[in-house]
Amino acid sequence: MSWITQSLPFSPIDYVGILLLLGAWLWIGWRVENPSPRRPSVGKIMDDYRRDWMKEMVTRQPRMFDAQVVAAMRQGSTFFASTTMIAIGGGLALLGNPQRLAGVAEDLALGSAPTMVWEVKILIILLFLCNAFLKYVWAHRLFGYCAVLMAAVPNDPEHPDVYPRAAQAAEICVTAARSFNRGLRATYFALAAVAWILGPLALILGTVITLAMLYRREFTSHSRAVLLNTGS
Q1: Which residues, 6+ apart, have CB-to-CB distance to 27 below 8 Å?
Q2: Is the separation of the CB atoms in 196 and 202 below 8 Å?
Q3: N or C, which end of the chain is more exposed by having fewer CB within 10 Å?
Q4: Rounded to 5 degrees, what angle do the CA atoms 180, 138, 48 make?
């Protein structure tokens, strides 16, 4: 069996680290989007605020404020999509010349490894970044759909289509925000995957820290307590 172990490009702890990374990414995404009704996540709480926002928009005249909010959300998704694209370009450049990264690792006394090892590590980072980029782009487009639906809401509060269209706009906004948040989580775990360059233990530590940070922000943060405080 020793020859099989020697032929593997990674150690068993490397495989543990990458499985932990993927498992943490999938689990926190599911947990945030499917929380217990008794302990909602920040994402779920914000979904309710978005629905309330669209109801308030019906009677707000003029609706310039609402248009500005949607524009700000589109700008945010554009910024992250552009930044992620730059990071993907940098990763592809490294993927085309992994010897440079291997040389840096040797200079930092991180050990030597076959070129394929560095290529796989970079590829994992790129996969997370590509996922994030696609989520940001889709969020940007959905926010655009939301803007169109908001513009289609009649100005007359008594019109029969007012609240149905406002509800449609709210659900599209919720879907856009969900996609944007998925992109953010993928970006966070891409940063955790960068720690793999320092070794498998660094990858495991980076994954645990990232998971703990995301869980705290969604379920135990001060901002969540503020959102839950309705003032009643």
Answers
A1: 211
A2: yes
A3: C
A4: 45
Distances (CA, A) of 179 to 20, 128, 155, 170, 176: 23, 14, 29, 14, 5
Task: Read off the pTM.
Answer: 0.88
Q: Measured between alpha carbons, how far is 153 from 173 in angstroms, rounded to an integer?
A: 14
Token representation of residue 78: 């554009």
Helix (H, G, I), strand (E, B) or coil at 201: helix
pLDDT of 168-227, one tens digit each? 999 999 999 999 999 999 999 999 999 998 889 999 999 999 999 999 999 999 999 999
